[in-house]
Amino acid sequence: MERDVQRVRDLARRIRVETIRLIGIAKSGHFTSVFSCAEILAALYSSVMRLSDDPTWSERDRLVLSKGHCAVGVYPVLAERGYFPSDWLDHYTRVGSPLGDHPDMRRVPGIDFSSGSLGHGLSVAVGMAIGARLRESHATRVYALLGDQELNEGQIWEAAQAAAHFGLGNLVAIVDRNQMGLDGPTEEIMSVEPIGRRFEAFGWRVEEVEDGHDPVALLRCFGSLPTATSRVPICIVARTVKGKGVKYMELSRTWHLGYLGPEDERATTLEVTQNA
Amino acid sequence: MREPFRAPRPREPSWDLAASTQLARSAVAGEVLAEMADDDDRIVVLTADLMYSNRTVDFERRHPQRFLNMGIAEQNMVSVAAGLATFGFIPYAASFASFVGLLAAEQLRTDVAYPGLPVRLLAHHAGVSLGFYGTSHHATEDLAFLRAVADMTVICPCDAASTAWALRATVDLDGPVYFRLGRGREPDVYDQATADLQLGRLASLRDGDDLTIVANGVTVAPALGAADRLAAEHGFEATVVDAHTVRPFDNEGLCDVATRTGRVLVAEEHNVVGGVASACADALVDAGLADVSLKRLGLPPDEYALIGPPSALYKHYGLDVEGINTAAVALMEER
Q1: How far is B45 from chain A, CA to nearest CA, in Å?
Q2: Would you call A106 helix, strand, or coil by DSSP?
Q3: Which of A112, A116, A162 has the CB atom closest to B73's CB atom?
C-alpha cells in the first residue's frame, strides 16, 4: 500500500508539472480542471486500472474522460506508458498535432473515447459496460470521469437510469467534485448537490471520498469496490479542490482557462513540485 | 398493391396492430437484422420505446439478449450505441427520424461520426410520414444536417427489398450509416430485384431522353407512375433514378444523366433546402453544369408542413403521381 501511495503521489506531481509545461506550449488551457483530478488520474493509471503495454488489449479496463478538458493531464501519462512517443507532447496543440485540448481516440493511442461535449461520457461508458457484459469480459471495468458542473446535463441522468436498469456493476462513475464551474461555484451557477443522494435515487451505490487528493483514501475506496460482476453501478464522489496544488489557482473564479508567463510558469512548477 | 383492411385478431396485443393488419409491410429492418444476426454476433439492436412502431420487436423475439430497449432517451441511446461499437459490436439504433436525426444530432456528429464508429441509425417515419402527429414528429431537415457530417453514410431505401439490400450491403462498412426509412407502408418498387443496386450509385429505373426525375424513399414509386403518365399523355420520355444513397452522393452519375437530358426534376420528402435537390445542385455546379434546368419538388423552405394524413400531405405537396407529373410538364414547357 505504501508503495502504491507513493506511486500515486509521484504520478500526480508529474501530471501537474507536465500540465503546466504543455499549457505553456498551447498558451491556453485547463490547469485547474486537471489539478483537481490529478490524484484520481494517478491512482487509476498507477494501480487501479487493468492495463497492458498494448493500449488496444481487449480485456483492459476503459476510462472515458467525460470531462474531456482534463486530457492535457492524461497525455503525459499515456506517453510515459509508451503508448506514443513522448515528443508528441512537445507539439501539444500545434497544427496537425494528435493532441488537442479535448482527446481524439482515433489519433491518440490509449484514449478510449473522444470527448469534449459534456454530458455524453456516461452514456458512452454505459454502452461500453453493456459491451463488456455481452463479450463476457467479466473482469473488465469501465470508468467514467465526470466533472461536477457537468451533472447539469440531462443526458447524464438518462445514462444513470440506464446503468441501474441494466445492472451495470462493472461501471464506475467518478465525480471530480471540485466545487467550481467556469463561471463560479457550482451551487451558484446551477446546483448539483446532493450528488450522492441523486445517484442513490437512480439506483446507484455511492462512495464518498472526503479528500479526493488523498492517495490513501482513493486507493482504499477503489480497493473496496464489489467485483465487476455485481449488479449495481458505482458512483464515487471525490471531494476535491479545483486548482489543487497551486495556491493562487485554488477555487479561483478566474483560472478555469488560463495561461502563465515564463516567470509565473517557473514559480508555479516549483510550487507543485514542492507541495507534492 | 394495397392490402385490404383486416381487423386485429382477438387476444392479439393491440400494440401489434401494425403487424396484425399488415400495415407495416416495408418495415422489415427488424426481421432482416434478426436473420443477419443468426450468424453475426456483432449485431445488436437498440430502440427507444418504439419496438412495435419500427418492428424491431421482430429482432427482440429472436435475439432478446442482443436487444436493448433504452426507453424514451434517444440521445443516451445514440451515445450508448457508440460505446457498444468500441467493443466490436455493430449497433442498430432505431427511433423516429425526428428524434434520431434531429434530437440526437450532436451525439451523431460527436460520439458516432467523429470517432468513425460503425453505428447504424434506423431513422424511421422520416419526412412527413407521421402526418397529423405534427411538426414535432416530422423530420424534413435531417438530410441538411447529415450531408454536412464527415464520415456519415446516408441511405434512403424506398421499399422492403431495398431496405433489406441496404442493411445487408452495409454491414461491414466502416463508419456510421443513417438509414432514412419510411413508415412501413411503401409499395414495392424492386420486389426482390435488387441485384443491380450499388451503394453510392444512382439506380436507373427507367430510361428517357427528355428529362430526369430524381427520387428516393417514398417518392420513387410515384416518380415511376408520373413518368409513365408523362409518356402516355404528353409524349415526354423521362429517366427515373433512385437516389437511395444520399451521402456519398453519386455526383458523376447525376451529371451524366443531367447532361444527357438537360432537365432534372428532384422529388423528395424533405425541405427543398439541404436534401437531395441540394446534393444535385452541388454536383451540377461543381461540374460546371449550371445551365442544366433543375426543379425542386419537396417541402417548402419557409414553412412547417401542414398536418394531415400522410397520403393527403404527399398530394398537397405534389409528391404523388399527379404532383410529380405536373411539375415535370412545367419543367418541359420552360424552354
Answers
A1: 12
A2: coil
A3: A162
* Residue B109: closest C-alpha in chain A: A117
Instruction: Determine, for residues A127 and B79 on separate chains, whether the beta-carbon distance falls below 8 Å.
Output: yes
Query: Strands B263-271 and B293-299, how do they pair?
Result: parallel
Burial B239-272 (b: 16+ CB within 10 A, else e): bbbbbbbbbebbbebbbebbeebbbbbbbbbbbb
Q: What CA–CA distance (Å, rounded) separates A235 from A238?
A: 9
Chain-chain contact of A114 with B75 (C-beta, under 8 angstroms): no
Query: Of the candidates B52, B129, B67, which has an alpha carbon nearest to the alpha carbon of residue B97?
Result: B129
Q: Searching chain B, which residue's CA lies closest to the CA of residue A112?
A: B86
User: What span, in angstroms and rounded, lies between the C-alpha atoms of B294 and B281?
Assistant: 7
Handedness of CA A182, A188, A191, A193 (dihedral sign): positive
The b/e string for A220-235 (b: 16+ C-beta within 10 A; e otherwise) is ebbeebeebeeeebbb
Closest Cβ–Cβ partner in A114, A127, A134 for B80: A127
Mean pLDDT of A8-26: 97
**Per-residue model confidence as pLDDT tens digits over B21-44:** 566 778 899 999 999 999 999 999
Is the separation of the CB atoms in B157 and B179 below 8 Å?
A: yes
Q: Which residue has the cell 410515384?
A: B222
Question: Residue A196 in contact with residue A165, Cβ under 8 Å?
Answer: no
Q: How many CB atoms lie within 10 A of CB A56?
A: 9
pLDDT recorded at residue B6 = 47
Q: Which three cell numbers stand for residue A223?
A: 480497493
Angle at alpha carbon of residue A270, lines to A268 and A275, rounded to 5° = 95
Using a CB-CB cut-off of 8 Å, the residues of chain B touching A116 are 110
Q: Percentage of chain A surpassing pLDDT 90?
A: 95
Which residue of B70, B84, B116 is in closest CB contact with A131? B84
Least confident range of A27-36, A169-178, A257-266, B112-121: A257-266
